[in-house]
Fold this protein.
Amino acid sequence: MRTLRPEPVSLPFPLPALRRRRPRCYEEWVALKRWGRLPSQERSVIGYQLRELRETRRLSQADLASQLGCSQQAISQAERWTSNPTFNFINRWGEALGVAVEVRLVQN
């Protein structure tokens, strides 16, 4: 038996943009970034960017922690979606991995 599907209906008003209410897991974030489908507001998740950088250098959290003189737990906490590491910590992370850290303010 065939079911009938209703015709799409146009709304007289635009729907609001839906914002993500919970963090993505790291694996999903990386996949969306690789596919070019990562929403613009999620491109600057500093914790995931730090993790991605560490993983491209093939370092464990413990190895990086020993280079930075901190605990492995501090590295783990900095790599979370909701992390808020200090600029000094991010700068030391970049120096340890051989990259320059740049902060830009861009007017919308």
About this structure: The domain at 43-97 is CATH 1.10.260.40 (434 Repressor (Amino-terminal Domain)). The chain has a mean pLDDT of 89.
